[in-house]
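Forwarding these from the shared drive since the link keeps breaking.
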Amino acid sequence: LAVADNGTFLYPGFQFDQTRTRMVPAVKDIIRLGRLGGWRDEELLQWFCRPNPLLSGKRPVDVLQDEELILPAAEKDLSR
């Protein structure tokens, strides 16, 4: 995911693992789902950062490591 800001692309750090060598697997899957659903990167970033009722009010960014929790929520939300 990237967001343009005054001609520069910004890449939110949450999408990378702790060593910053690769993208978190769940994020890759969620980006793919979002893009297939017509979501822009800015919209996907908002989805990651807002509390989600499907995640008991937690933000998706806070549960990235729990694929069994986050992927079903993403499938429901991003297919709308």
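-- next protein --
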Amino acid sequence: RAVRCGLAVQDALRDLGLEVRAGVHTGEVERPQGAKPRGIAVHVGARVMSLAGSGEVLVSGTTRDLVAGSGLEFEDRGEHELKGVDGRRRVFAARV
């Protein structure tokens, strides 16, 4: 749903002459009462988004694997080092 939401927001704002970027990663999120969501999944999602260009929805390889069979299409954008995250992560551009 997050990937489709990002694509829908992108489409709606494009009609207004605006372009946004979005990043999606799937993982565990901590949300202590009264605090902002936090955890490595939030951090990875933000880093994936930072790689996106204007008008792009990028997803992590984890998310791409989990939505297999959903009808979404993905274009490989290669492996990237994400600041503050160990190892390299493969990133994909989402399309309907």
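The chain has three helices and four strands. Helices lie at 2-14, 40-51, 61-66.

- D.
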